[in-house]
Amino acid sequence: MIETGAGGAGVIWGVIDAIEPGKRLYLNGWFGVQGVVAGRVHFDISETATGSRLLVQHHAIGPVPEDLNTRYRALWRRILGTSLREHLAGTPV
Hints:
two-stranded antiparallel sheet, alpha+beta, four-stranded antiparallel sheet, globular, 1 helix
């Protein structure tokens, strides 16, 4: 996961650590959390009777203030609960 900015600036937020196509994606990195020594995000997909279930876990080692933890939880909910659904439905996000 790379973000590029003006004037050639950029940052690597995370790199793929493990992948099982159609089942699992693990990323390692700091994901923009200041003070974090290491982080890992897991995306696990499983089939359900009515479709698929996406489970996301975001773990970090290092000092993460509670307000930042709350903010990241809200961001993951918005990204996965709203933006991803809109994108899959063909709505511009």
